[in-house]
Amino acid sequence: MNPFKNKSALLVGMALLAGMGAAHAEKADRNKPIHIESDRLSVDDAKHISTFEGKVELVQGTLRLSAEKLVVTDDAAGNKFCVATGHLASFRQKREETNEYVEGYGERIEYDTRGETVDFYVQARVRRDQNEVRGDHITYSTQTEIFRVSGRPDTGRVRATIQPKNSEPKAGKTGAAPK
Fold it and tell me: What is the DSSP letter of 76?
């Protein structure tokens, strides 16, 4: 596999996504409690590990994470590291000062509250408005909204769909009567 091909795909994907908007993930979410529901729960207090299984739903403000299994590890400072698995676990979070959401999917999703990052693995895709990236591994910073996309090991390819910005107002939205 050509290492320059992977780096080029990564840089192109990052450049395309950089133009998708400057708003950040909902900042208030960081200071809200994490609520988790599931069918079963196993807690190992000595190791600070909680395992949730069966229709798992994690909610922290506007952030939503759904999976079949979720393993949450706490560090000494109280930060959480969550690993969600399932046939396409999902992530969704509102963007700051907009009515738009970032949505992501993967067979494994890792959410790190300390680093404010979300990693999507295997069949990974992240969508913001009508724009979408796909790859084998996507890293998304909820703080900076920077994406890093790696392609599949066999091809090294990533996919991005970037919609054109509509610069013309839609008829009837400006208050003027259509001609």
Answer: T
Is residue 140 within 8 Å of residue 118, measured between CB atoms?
A: yes
Q: Which residues of 161-177 are buried (b: 16+ CB within 10 A; e: fewer)?
A: eeeeeeeeeeeeeeeee
What is the tens place of the pLDDT at every residue in 46-71?
Answer: 999 999 999 999 998 888 999 999 99
Select from 121, 120, 143, 124 the least CA-distant residue to 29: 143
Using CA atoms, how far apart are residues 77 and 82, in angstroms rounded to an integer? Answer: 15
Token pair 């994907």 is found at 13
Nearest to 113 by CA among 72, 56, 66: 72
Confidence of residue 1 (pLDDT cuts 50, 70, 90): very low
- Alpha-carbon distance of 143 to 102, in angstroms, equals 12
Query: Token pair for residue 129?
Result: 């408005």
Identity of the amino acid at 51 = T
Confidence of residue 35 (pLDDT cuts 50, 70, 90): very high
Domains of the chain: 3-161 (2.60.450.10)
Paired sense of beta strands 49-60 and 40-44, if any: antiparallel
